[in-house]
Amino acid sequence: MTSYATILAMEWGVLGHEWAAQMLQQHIVHQQVRHAYLFTGPSGVGRRTLALRFAQALNCTQSPGPGLPCGTCRTCQQIEQMQHPDLAVVQAENEGGALKIDQIRALQHSLSLSPYQARYRLALLLNFEDANANAQNALLKTLEEAPEKVILLLTSDSAENLLPTIVSRCEILRLRPASIETLAVALQNHWGFPVAESNLLAHISSGRTGYALHLHNDPASLEQRRIWLDALQELLHASRRVRFAFAEKQFPRRERDLGKSRQTLRQILQVWLSYWRDILLYTAGSAVPLVNLDRENEIKRLAAILDFNGVRSCTLALENSLSLLESNVNPQLLLEVLLLDWPRLG
């Protein structure tokens, strides 16, 4: 029999986070709502969704039960779209950019005002790991002396990437992906996806419900993934000249000042990293499920050709490149060096 917590999590759209949905509901029911919550976990795992459902439950005007959002009233719909007058959303202006102190100061001014029409005034700070040290320190005063009827909701990839003084003042909810099997079944039964698509999306997303739903709703993302994986296959057989040409193509001069190419490179490297990790799993004889299930035959062939140490080096190089991309390095040079170190297959 399906438990109440599981039903609640499914209704909230936060599969795998039954405990978190039930805990937040109980905080509302027993009037024990904290002034700040920190939702951590990998991108696409459901951090923002859970925070928004909690915000809806706090302010819903037609609640079907204690601590539950209806999802259909004007307040719930505005919060879902992140356009409610009592909900302030703060995040870095550009992907990969920094969340700045001026944004925190503007938030603090808005939080000093009484709620306009809701029970609580809410602040949703997305990907707070992007906040620089000054911005994080600026938020401390609000965390320490939060105005009445103000609740802060922070999301981050990891609590360890935030200042300890920030973390210690928040109720922490550490979210983890659902199992691939659980997500695949839910995509079929709850969202009505075909069996083959459900299985593939569960693998590609590694159990992250939000990312799986994003891929379903945005077929262009799946197509772009296919293009990047096809490019990886071609580059493994390509000469240095072709590899240099590929790297140069990712950074057209007209886009260099916009930062668009840097964002695209980050996405490419993440897709490639998932592929090299799959090859590494095969070469190591691991039983861990593949991410790129639709590329299993290719992965098997490469695992038979490449040795474990070589695959491991390529995987570590990709992880290092992603880290370096966050610092002030030349992204085109970074990609060129990465590709030059890849093996060339006959």
Order of helices and strands: HHEHHEHEHEHEHHHHHHHHH
Mean pLDDT: 91
Q: What name does CATH use for the topology of the largest domain?
A: Rossmann fold
Distance between the termini: 55 Å
Provide the number of structural domains. Answer: 2
Strand content: 5-15%
The name of the CATH superfamily of the largest domain reads P-loop containing nucleotide triphosphate hydrolases
Number of strands: 5
Low-confidence blocks of residues: none
Shape: globular
Q: Which structural class do the helices and strands define?
A: alpha/beta
Q: According to CATH, what is the class of the largest domain?
A: Alpha Beta
Report on the biggest sheet: 5 strands, parallel
Helical content band: 40-55%
Strand order of the largest sheet: 2-3-4-1-5
Radius of gyration using CA atoms only: 22 Å
Supply the number of helical segments. 16
CATH architecture annotation name of the largest domain: 3-Layer(aba) Sandwich
